[in-house]
Amino acid sequence: MADRPRRSGSSPDPDPPTVSDLHALGAPAPADDPRMAPVVARPTTSRRRRRLLQATIIVLVVLAGNFPYMDSWASDRYDEWRSHQPAYMRDNGRWDIVADSGSRSIHAALLRTGKVLLMAGSGNDKNNFDAKRFETILWDPTANSFQKIYTPWDVFCAGHAFLPNGDLLIAGGTKAYEVLAQDAPDGKKKEYEGLKDSYVFDPISQRYVKTGFLQHARWYPTLVTLANGAVVAVSGLNENGDIDPGNTESFDIASSAWIEHPELVKEFPTYPSLLLTADGRLFFSGANAGYGPASLEARQSGLWNLTNNQFQAVPGLPLPEVNETAGTVLLAPAQDQKVMFIGGGGVGDTQVATDRTAIVDLSAPQPAWQRGPDLSSPKRYPGAVLLPDDTVLVSGGSRRYRAKDTLTAEIYDPATKAFRPVADPHVGRDYHSEYLLLPDGRVAVFGSNPLSDDNTFDTRVEVYSPPYLYAGERPVISGAPGTITRGTTITLRASQKIGKVRLMRPGAYTHVTDTEQRSVALPITAQADGTVTVSVPDNPNVLPGDWYMLFVDNGANVPSVATWVHVTP
């Protein structure tokens, strides 16, 4: 390195080294050396714009790819917020998923204890069947708790009806599962096979009690209770998988035995919807589920006389070719004898569904169906539940065979003869779903077994709180007799002036069929100072012996919580 010039008259010592000199000699640079400051890139204006554009494009691409999810998420959050607003609930009610039973329930029945019996058996799961894992769950809606009940046979696809003492009679079940043609050694399809097993479930001891065997094995049968307390069993597949040709039998309470009735021969498709009418005949609405003759003649709606085996056809059902997987309900009050037919689909696993309803007045000399208001969408497997304000909740169902659940609900008002939409359920329900009115006025919904490769089953319990639960203070029943005799008057005490009084029979639901639920009016004859006197109908065909939920309302269709009463046989 060249010597630096010296200043004139200066000391002979050299100038102090510069930073460059020290750096060149390998010495570390001082901390305040400007060269130690980080170098910050300063892009040009055009580069900054280009980078901003690129970032914007990336964000837009990400948003576009996730828009359906984001839109659904935002929509769900809004719906959740809206569904909890007081004004909305007053108009539409509210749905809540309250529990997961963990059970593949096929049947559900409300017991006189207020608990719900959820019967699965093998639950449409052959692995359970082969392992003999048969299940029953008892749900307590008040505590929202579940209790397992020992189940001694495969109750899957049995029939059931209440006895006059409130016990539930269950008959039939599964002897063998179907074998598809491609899985059969001989290449021929084998149908499900029925059982002769019969049990009573005692709500107090909470256990199944064996009765005598059925005279005929039955799978997919219907049981219906008569005015004298006997229970009639019809239809189903027998122990060979063949449709029952029309054998009729009845359960005798005194002997706990099933009695053959060779004089009563009537072939029905499986799970026929049968209702006890005011004159003692059984009304077949034409609705059914699953198997049986496909001809319209075999599925003809009509009134069956059990004294002489005569069958009076009831004509006029719109679209009778799509009456499978339809719902049937005896409209309130039962004294009016009006029946509603709801939705339905084609025979078997066809994909046809309909939105039609129809209504028939069975008190007419020559009853005939009249078209009712259409549903909000076509529905197979619709759930229809009578409410204590005389309306009917219709929810669930699917547009196809075990597929495309509707996720809609609506309420039919017999006074206006019209439906109105209400809050939508969160869970889709189709095949193997059940619907029950609870004593507190809510509706509980269970099950659903849509068609899938893994045989999926929804075990969540969802509860609907109707609009009347948000319409003001509910009346309270402070006094009612525990036992009621037909043809008498009874006195009640209530916290408000009462508009109407109803006895509602608890439901026992399976495969779109519930022969039990009915709402019977108790006309008010006097009312003063919180005391209400009502008359009890004397017709046992209208008011069969059983335990009932007694509801009163305040004249504005706001019902009380029910009190259980026993209508003696």
TrEMBL record:
<keyword id="KW-1133">Transmembrane helix</keyword>
<dbReference type="InterPro" id="IPR009880">
    <property type="entry name" value="Glyoxal_oxidase_N"/>
</dbReference>
<keyword id="KW-0472">Membrane</keyword>
<dbReference type="InterPro" id="IPR011043">
    <property type="entry name" value="Gal_Oxase/kelch_b-propeller"/>
</dbReference>
<keyword id="KW-0732">Signal</keyword>
<dbReference type="InterPro" id="IPR014756">
    <property type="entry name" value="Ig_E-set"/>
</dbReference>
<keyword id="KW-0812">Transmembrane</keyword>
<dbReference type="InterPro" id="IPR013783">
    <property type="entry name" value="Ig-like_fold"/>
</dbReference>
<dbReference type="InterPro" id="IPR037293">
    <property type="entry name" value="Gal_Oxidase_central_sf"/>
</dbReference>
<feature type="domain" description="Glyoxal oxidase N-terminal">
    <location>
        <begin position="136"/>
        <end position="468"/>
    </location>
</feature>
<dbReference type="Pfam" id="PF07250">
    <property type="entry name" value="Glyoxal_oxid_N"/>
</dbReference>
<dbReference type="InterPro" id="IPR015202">
    <property type="entry name" value="GO-like_E_set"/>
</dbReference>
<feature type="region of interest" description="Disordered">
    <location>
        <begin position="1"/>
        <end position="45"/>
    </location>
</feature>
<feature type="transmembrane region" description="Helical">
    <location>
        <begin position="52"/>
        <end position="70"/>
    </location>
</feature>
<dbReference type="Pfam" id="PF09118">
    <property type="entry name" value="GO-like_E_set"/>
</dbReference>
<protein>
    <submittedName>
        <fullName>Uncharacterized protein</fullName>
    </submittedName>
</protein>
<feature type="domain" description="Galactose oxidase-like Early set">
    <location>
        <begin position="474"/>
        <end position="567"/>
    </location>
</feature>
<dbReference type="GO" id="GO:0005975">
    <property type="term" value="P:carbohydrate metabolic process"/>
</dbReference>
